[in-house]
Amino acid sequence: MLAESRMGPETAPKPPGPADDADIPRWTAALGLPGLADVHVHFLPERMLQKVWAVFDHADEHYGYPWPITYRLPEDRRLELLREFGLPVIPALTYAHKPGMARWLNEWGAEFAARVPDGLHCATLYPEPDVAEYVTEALDAGARLLKVHIQVGGFAPDDPLLDEAWAELARRRVPVVLHAGSGPRPGEHTGADPVRRLLQTHPELTLVIAHLGMPEYHAFADLAEEYPGVHLDTTMAATDFTERFAPLPPGYVQRLGVLRSKVVLGTDFPNIPYPYAHQLQALARLGLGRDWLRAVLWDNGARLLGLPPS
Predict the structure, then answer these.
(1) Distances from the Cα of 298 to the Cαs of 58, 73, 158, 165, 310, in angstroms?
(2) pTM of the complete model
(3) What is the DSSP letter of 213?
(4) I need a surface site. Which of 110, 118, 120, 280 has the fewest CB within 10 A?
(5) Spatial distance between the Cα atoms of 264 and 243, rounded to a whole number of angstroms
(6) How many C-beta neighbours within 10 Å does residue 215 have?
(7) What are the pLDDT digits (tens) for 35-84?
(8) Can you spell out the DSSP letters for 14-69?
(9) In this structure, are strands 145-149 and 176-179 parallel, antiparallel, or unpaired?
(10) Three-state DSSP class for 198?
(11) Greatest extent of the chain over all pairs of C-alpha atoms, in Å
(12) What confidence tens digit (pLDDT) does each residue in 82-113 have?
């Protein structure tokens, strides 16, 4: 206590991670990284984006707590910010919740990638008769990352209608960011068991489990240990916001250390209720070390996105 009392503001230890958003480039450079390989970033058609933000505006009704959107900004400013943060490629993740929507979103994703020089061509899917056809078309057109949201979509990941599409994705080893955990609220098909059934049929899939599978953290870590292509993304995990309702369970941080090559940076930008830098602070304060941070913030995501290693 005596030592602490002698420490003024200039000598007190600073919290790990960047001080704020403006400090992110300095902090990543100090780690020896060329930037950030964030696999979980959303851009959407404007009308859809406004509807999504309207849901978050009533989050206290839907989830029981407020969820203010920190980056409620025009598209060009959001792109500019991500470049300032150090993202060399910018995903535009979309997700469908009804028939006929995925094909339209995939067309928009191709248009986004064509007009945004550093935009990553992304796609999505939904269980419907033509899903294998439009997923193949998107992959042939250059899609490099997919997003599937089980809770919002309200379908099982092992729905037979998706079988051919999953087989094609497995064959081409294109990663899929899969929101299958039961947070922020459970759905009929959320949880690890439906994903395990999917992997039993398609064990070569490259899946990136969003939010570390929150709150079924350990169950999804089991899948990452068992299947070579299963990864975990850090989206919103360990932040002050989610630790209030979905805290990391005992023993889990140690598992993240063991799974270093399987953990990938994700943030959910722009739909987050805190600054982007806070996600990085939350990961740094896990205390897993520089090598772990280097792997998670760049190397693992770069490998999935086809970027050069650090």
Answers:
(1) 34, 26, 31, 28, 7
(2) 0.94
(3) G
(4) 118
(5) 19
(6) 21
(7) 999 999 999 999 999 999 999 999 898 888 999 999 999 999 999 999 99
(8) PPSS-SSGGGHHHHHHHTT-SS-----BB---HHHHHHHHHHHHTHHHHTSS----
(9) parallel
(10) helix
(11) 70
(12) 999 999 999 999 999 999 999 999 999 999 99
Residue 178 CA to chain centroid, in angstroms? 8
- CA distances to 83, 96, 141, 200, 229 from 209, rounded to whole Å, are 25, 17, 25, 16, 11
Burial bucket for residue 183 (CB in 10 Å: 0-12, 13-18, 19+): buried
Strand partners, 119: 90
Question: Do you know the residue count of the chain?
Answer: 310
Look at residues 35, 68, 47 and name the one whose alpha carbon lies nearest to residue 270. Answer: 68
Output the CA torsion sign for 36, 78, 179, 175: negative
* Residue 257, H or E segment: helix 252-258
- Token match 């899948």: residue? 223
Q: Residues 77, 84: contact at Cβ < 8 Å?
A: no
Strand, helix or coil for residue 231: strand
Distance CA 298, CA 87 (A): 10
